[in-house]
């Protein structure tokens, strides 16, 4: 049976030679999993990996859709949360995939947010030295960022995402209906990554978001457009630099400051989630660029105004519970980015949509900036 | 400093685009590790993974050579044996690599046989989504087979090598001096894989081995020639089919029967080691091909005569302790190779150096053949 797009559905192609794949974006895709997989996969067997938060809502409809298309499926439900990205959970996932006799033409499905996608993609990447893999992301963050591009992995005691592989999915199904059940805070956190694509190199998209963000938050076709534009932006970068030798680093715009803030709040999601860290980090990146005389302070103000309007935190002071001194934040940055001869690599900007990789940023300037922004 | 080859040293290039690498074959290479790495690597930090059998002989000379070249090294010594190819040992290896702050331009070194190479290569393949990796194989089997080609991995309760990645090394140092310390049985087991390359598609090489095997066993330039020819044969196949979509399956000549025999003897190395299983398996593959009227029985007799002359087992009856009935051997084959509609894929041959992939071999014919060769 051929895949049939509904009128509101969008398709983005990730061009990676013989590893190219489609991202489908639209309503009702989870209930169409069987149809979409049936149209693309030779095998007739899948293993679905999900978590305790997602399973009650979406596992049954997915399993029913697979059964209806004559696809045999087993499922494994993991505990939710960042701690699941560990060897402790990777091992039973690999066992479940092998136990289900998933072979060359069969597939492994990740049904969940970034944690489930990263863990499951890693398992798919190492079982039989690489098995077919389908992403069904259920958070906005996963739909516009982590489900696209093939980065998979788990955390190590030495740091986040330090163990993993590049393993591209064979298909991404971004069911936009699931976004209606996200909390406003979760949706906003994902929106920070949407805005990021505008700030990296798509000023017109950022302008469109400033005009249309309410429609994006409300759902419907503007939201599908925003997700498709984000996926297209990420797909373009990934196609140009799959293994992050250069350009792909731009996708980390706002993330160096953001990661430091996540570390400083000990990854406590009550205080700060990833997208919120990125929102504050993007404002800081603009302000730091202005301080280095690379960009106008007007751009920093414009970015902050928009992120604030949608309800995102934009300043370190917005984080509840206080932060350690600037020196400690700087230590976290130095752990994330290697400091070489007092210089570090940073994604800076010349203005909205004009980001670039700077590899000679003086660590002392970053520290002084942090001290100004976060006086003790 | 440039790498300088001694007159007796050979170099084989594995051509894989931007992942191409050299295999150096010759005496004294372990004591030259620092020189060879220093000539090729930007970084100045390595982690050496080895085992308790290899460490007492070769770890100190390697560490001294690295220190002399100004390369900082840490080492981790694991228990020897197949059980080490497990998540239980993979996790501390990953930790050791990260703990040593091995980064982009640094490297991970596997100093040991196939187990250490497979495990360490897998760890290098997943730390930071792929780290530089150097193979220093210390068995003949590892020098002519497992250290070349990028297959890495660990075992699963569901089967051997089911978890892993393709991760090519950046350099292979095959120090032929280490072969002098192998037991005759270990050397012969590795020799079975050398002979395999002749049987796959190099009849002149097989003929050369028939004439020169005593010199190969004695050491010196004939042995270096045989290893270089084997590495070149494997490099050619890997360059043509890195991820085993077709041609690379030929490298499994003799292995389907061999794996079944290894499983039937419960991987008890007192009874049968891998190379011995391959030796018997290659004779069986020739005999089965003759039975299918694909090849002359003379070729089977010729192959058996040579392997027997060098001291390898060539018949199922040569395995001490007896074997389960033919039906059980057939079950092991069916687990290894998927049976589809009563047919399975097998590497057969039309004669010495004329192997090919047959994907429609009737399972019933294999069973009848096994019953004849191994009557209860």
Structure, described:
Two copies of one chain form a homodimer. Helix content of chain A is 46%, strand content 17%. In chain A, β10 and β11 form a beta hairpin. Chain A has two domains: 10-178, Rossmann fold; 185-373, Dehydroquinate synthase-like - alpha domain (Dehydroquinate synthase-like, alpha domain), CATH 1.20.1090. In chain A, α5 packs parallel to α6, α6 (184-201) runs antiparallel to α7 (203-218) and α10 runs antiparallel to α11 (297-309). The model of chain A has no long low-confidence stretch (mean pLDDT 94). Chain A has helices spanning 33-40, 55-68, 87-99, 114-126, 140-146, 184-201, 203-218, 221-240, 255-264, 274-291, 297-309, 326-336, 363-373, and strands at 10-14, 21-26, 45-51, 72-78, 107-112, 133-137, 154-156, 159-163, 171-175, 343-349, 355-362. Chain A is globular. The first copy, chain A, has 13 helices and eleven strands. In chain A, the strands form three sheets. Chain A has a seven-stranded mixed beta sheet, with helices on both faces. In chain A, strands 7-8 form a two-stranded antiparallel ribbon. Chain A has 376 residues and is an alpha/beta fold. Chains A, B: Belongs to the sugar phosphate cyclases superfamily. Dehydroquinate synthase family. Chains A, B: It comes from Sinorhizobium sojae CCBAU 05684. Chains A, B: Pathway: Metabolic intermediate biosynthesis; chorismate biosynthesis; chorismate from D-erythrose 4-phosphate and phosphoenolpyruvate: step 2/7. Chains A, B: Its EC number is 4.2.3.4. Chains A, B: Zn(2+) binds at residues 193, 255, 274.
């Amino acid at each position: 049976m051929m895949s049939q797009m509904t009128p509101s559905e969008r398709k983005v192609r990730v061009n990676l030679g013989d590893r190219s794949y489609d991202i489908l974006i639209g309503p009702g895709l989870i209930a169409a999993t069987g149809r979409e997989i049936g149209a693309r996969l030779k095998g007739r067997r899948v293993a679905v990996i999900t978590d305790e938060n997602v399973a009650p809502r979406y596992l049954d409809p997915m399993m029913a859709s697979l059964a209806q298309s004559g696809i045999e499926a087993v499922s494994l439900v993991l505990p939710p949360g960042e701690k699941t990205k560990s060897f402790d959970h990777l091992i039973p996932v690999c066992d479940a995939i092998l136990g289900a006799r998933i072979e060359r033409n069969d597939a492994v499905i990740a049904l969940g947010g970034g944690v489930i996608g990263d863990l499951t993609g890693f398992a798919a990447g190492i079982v039989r030295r690489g098995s077919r893999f389908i992403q069904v992301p259920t958070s906005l963050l996963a739909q516009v960022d982590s489900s696209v591009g093939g980065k998979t992995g788990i955390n190590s005691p030495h740091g986040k995402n330090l163990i993993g592989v590049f393993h591209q999915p064979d298909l991404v199904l971004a069911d936009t209906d699931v976004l209606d059940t996200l909390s406003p805070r979760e949706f906003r956190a994902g929106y920070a990554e949407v805005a990021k694509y505008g700030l990296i190199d798509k000023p017109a998209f950022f302008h469109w978001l400033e005009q249309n963000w309410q429609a994006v938050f409300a759902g419907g076709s503007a939201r599908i457009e925003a997700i498709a534009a984000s996926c297209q932006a990420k797909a373009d970068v990934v196609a140009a630099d799959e293994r992050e030798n250069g350009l792909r680093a731009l996708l980390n715009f706002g993330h160096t400051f953001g990661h430091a803030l996540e570390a400083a709040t000990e990854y406590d999601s009550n205080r700060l989630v990833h997208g919120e860290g990125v929102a504050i980090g993007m404002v800081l990146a603009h302000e730091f660029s202005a301080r280095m005389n690379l960009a106008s302070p007007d751009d920093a103000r414009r970015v902050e105004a928009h992120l604030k309007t949608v309800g995102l935190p934009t300043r370190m002071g917005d984080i509840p519970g206080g932060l350690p001194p600037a020196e400690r934040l700087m230590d976290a940055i130095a752990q994330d980015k290697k400091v070489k001869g007092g210089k570090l690599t940073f994604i800076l900007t010349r203005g909205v949509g004009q980001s670039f990789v700077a590899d000679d940023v003086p660590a002392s300037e970053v520290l002084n900036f942090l001290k100004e922004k976060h006086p003790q």
